[in-house]
Each structure stands twice: as C-alpha cells, then as structure tokens.
Amino acid sequence: MDISTLIGVLIAVLVAGFAAWLFYLQRKAKATEETKVEGSTAMQLQAYERLTLLVDRIALPNLISRMNIPGLTARDMQLALTQAIKEEYDYNITQQIYVSAEAWGAVKNLKEQNALVVNQFANALPANATGLDLNKLLLEYLMTDRKGSLHEIVSEILSFEAKKLL
C-alpha cells in the first residue's frame, strides 16, 4: 500500500468519524429538545390539574360544606368564605404561567364571581342573621340560578384544554 492510498484512507476515516460525531450531537440535541417539550407538557398538565382542584375547592357548595361552622354570624361567615376563596386563589396564582389566558381568565372570573355573590347575599341579610342563614341563602341561589354553577363551566374549560395537550 502506497502513501497516497494510506492518506486517502486516513482522510476517509476522519471524515466518516467527524460525520458520525455530528450525527451524534444532532441526535443528542433533538433528544434534549424532546425531553424539554415532554417536561413542559407535564408541567402544563399539572397546572390544569391544580386549577381544577382549585375550582372544586372554591365552588360555593363545596366551600359552604367545608366552612359550615356553627355559631358564626352572617358577617363572620361572609369573611370566612371570602377569605377561603382568596387564600385558595392566591396559593395557586403561579399556575397561570402554564395555562392559556382564557383558562386563567375563567378561573379568575370564578373567584371574583363567588366572592361577589357571597358579599351581595351577606349584605342583603339583616344585621342579626347567622352564618347558617347566609349558607342557606347561598345554597338556594345555587339551586335556582344557572350562574351558580359557573364552577362546572370552568372545570369543563380546564378539562378541555388539558385534553388538548394529551
């Protein structure tokens, strides 16, 4: 074997090795990108899951059953309900960066609507009303007015968007 053949073989081996190395780097970058996308999707799904739980927790029927404390005045119950709504919302506020603006807007609207309903009904009661009176009034409203089931609509929005990610 002469020197020119040896140099040719050496160049071919180096070129093939360099091409294999570039191919390896490209595959590694693609795998890293796929992992990022999968991780991002997982985080988005977790956010939708947490927001669905938030919606369930601030749904007025569920909130009333958890906060039904005997002996409270209507004013104290109003404060307890609105504080619970605020705390639940504040605890999950960072989830908005993982979900669509529409989904977050629906959650925010639910929070504001529920606080407004509680405040309006509490303010309509006489000064000597009990927390039980407020809870009864709220539950009657929820059973008769379609707006009272806003939490179900928001849950459906969150579920629909989460399913789009799957």
Class from helix and strand fractions = mainly alpha
**Overall pLDDT level:** 89
> What is Rg?
29 Å
Topology pattern, helix = H, strand = E: HHHHHH
> Assembly type of the shown chains?
single chain
Count the strands?
0
Quick summary of this structure?
With 166 residues, the protein is mainly alpha-helical. It is 81% helix and 0% strand. The chain is rod-shaped.
Structural write-up:
This protein has one domain (38-165). By secondary structure, the protein is mostly helical. Helix 3 (74-91) crosses helix 5. The longest helix has 56 residues, at 3-58. 81% of the residues lie in helices and 0% in strands.
Provide the fold topology:
Elements: H1 3-58, H2 60-66, H3 74-91, H4 101-124, H5 131-144, H6 150-165
Helix pairs in contact: 1-4, 1-6, 3-4, 3-5, 4-6
Which terms summarize this structure?
rod-shaped; 166 residues
